[in-house]
Task: inverse folding
């Protein structure tokens, strides 16, 4: 049985789960995911957005910053990043992979292979759209995105301006303009995020402290306006119309199928 290791961001995790769920059958895939994803996994199951995943195991790599440090430039050479890799190496020694071992992306693949002694392959090369890459990997057709939504039918808009990377976060002037424009049309607007993400924004703000609360915010909205971050991929998973805002340049390899089909993306 081949094994996919999920060690990157929450958004990557959601995309992978949605895609790998379709890989059951004659060639099931084992999933080994970092334990920091477990609360998100539970929330997705609680909302019945994903299946049972009998072949998933959560492994404790002591990841601190929501992503394996070796996959980042900022924390690449931090001592804790090397300790995370050592945890992965020890895990592979104790629980060897029976078939092929895959990382989500090509970035640092060779380094992880060298450090751990495990030959890794990758699913996404960084250039192809990631949803397309998973479709090719599983051999299954991608889920067709929902149709576009007429503006005059929208009554509730959710804006999620925050991001793990500060450079991706929506500027306050844009958030205020979006809120003002939608409210002029009689639309109820909610600006939501983690408490640490909302300090730069004005007006009424809604915070969430769990993935269950975030999913509830998305569920009740007709349209989600988001930075290139986790909420937009959750919106895609939930079949919610959404618009993605990118800082300076559209990140085409990470466009959701909905945004790519309906051109619901722009830059700021």
Result:
């Amino acid at each position: 049985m081949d094994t996919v290791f999920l060690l990157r961001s929450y958004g990557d995790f959601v995309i992978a789960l949605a895609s790998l769920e379709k890989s059951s059958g004659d060639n099931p895939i084992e999933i080994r995911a970092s334990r920091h994803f477990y609360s998100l996994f539970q929330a997705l199951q609680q909302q019945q957005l994903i299946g049972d995943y009998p072949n998933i195991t959560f492994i404790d790599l002591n990841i601190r910053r929501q992503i394996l440090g070796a996959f980042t430039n900022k924390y690449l050479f931090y001592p804790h990043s090397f300790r995370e890799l050592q945890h992965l190496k020890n895990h592979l020694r104790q629980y060897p992979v029976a078939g092929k071992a895959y990382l989500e992306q090509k970035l640092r693949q060779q380094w992880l292979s060298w450090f751990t002694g495990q030959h890794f392959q990758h699913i996404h090369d960084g250039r192809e759209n990631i949803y397309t890459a998973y479709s090719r990997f599983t051999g299954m057709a991608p889920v067709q995105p929902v149709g576009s939504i007429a503006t005059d039918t929208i009554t509730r808009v959710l804006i999620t301006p925050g991001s793990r990377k500060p450079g991706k976060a929506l500027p306050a002037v844009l958030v205020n303009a979006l809120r003002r424009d939608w409210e002029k049309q009689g639309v109820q607007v909610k600006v939501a995020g983690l408490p640490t993400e909302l300090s730069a924004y004005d007006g009424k703000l809604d915070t969430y402290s769990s993935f269950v609360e975030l999913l509830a915010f998305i569920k009740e909205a007709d349209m989600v306006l988001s930075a290139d971050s986790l909420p937009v991929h959750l919106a895609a998973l939930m079949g919610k119309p959404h618009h993605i805002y990118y800082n300076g340049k559209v990140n085409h390899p990470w466009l959701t199928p909905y945004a790519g089909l309906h051109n619901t993306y722009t830059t700021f």
